[in-house]
Amino acid sequence: MSTAASSALYDIEKVEREGDTVLFPEEIPMMFNKAEYKRTLPTELMGTTLSQIIEEIEAASWNIRMFVERQSINVEIDMLLSLLETTGVKLINPSQIIDYLLEFPDLINIIPQAVEATRNHLPGAYLFLGVYSDPEIEDRYLSLCVRLRKYDETVMERIEAAEAEFLDRLVDKEGWLQLTTDFEDPEERGVF
């Protein structure tokens, strides 16, 4: 492309302003097809204020960022749930867990630490992860439930010790992860 053609292209793409209204050049150099020009600059933008165009671009950009961020979070959640299943954590209603983590993604990186701490303090424990919904008040949170073949008087102390390893990471988070037990046999149904 010659210098004259590239500068002509620059002039055509350049938007002139009068006040805040976008004005499009009346005369288009003969080397450019008017139909192509209109396709490049959609007719629905004619007469639109520059600030309106900027708002539209910012809204579209925000939507794209949110989409990309959500896709990234979805990948992190899928990886986390796969990791948990691989390490023997039973997921109760995975779709509820996914929804909860989409709402509170800060917990994604805390859950593996909670599982590891629980396994260290309660070796041989069966772990169940699910969303607990309190029937008396409108509250729900992630619950990591511990079930053992045999319970003794140290179970609650060991749960508290495991919880102490990740509890400080929950500070300033909107979601919650509770480590608990229902004192049931691991084979018993009805977790959460």
How would you describe the overall organization of this protein?
The protein has a four-stranded mixed β-sheet. A two-stranded antiparallel ribbon has the order 1-2. The chain has a domain at 87-181: Alpha-Beta Plaits (2-Layer Sandwich). The radius of gyration is 29 Å and the shape is elongated. It has 192 residues and is α/β, with parallel strands linked by helices. The longest helix is centred in the middle third of the chain and has 37 residues, at 50-86. It is built from six helices and six strands; from the N terminus they run H-E-E-H-H-E-H-H-E-E-H-E. Helix 3 (50-86) crosses helix 4 (94-103). The model is unreliable at 1-41 (pLDDT under 50).
Question: TL;DR?
Answer:
With 192 residues, the protein is α/β, with parallel strands linked by helices.
| Helix-strand category | alpha/beta
The CATH class assignment of one domain is Alpha Beta
Instruction: State mean pLDDT (0 to 100 scale).
Output: 79
Order of helices and strands: HEEHHEHHEEHE
The total strand number stands at 6
CATH topology of one domain: Alpha-Beta Plaits
- Tally the helices: what do you get? 6
* Second CATH tier, the architecture of one domain: 2-Layer Sandwich
Q: In percent, how helical is the residue content? A: 40-55%
Which term fits the overall shape?
A: elongated
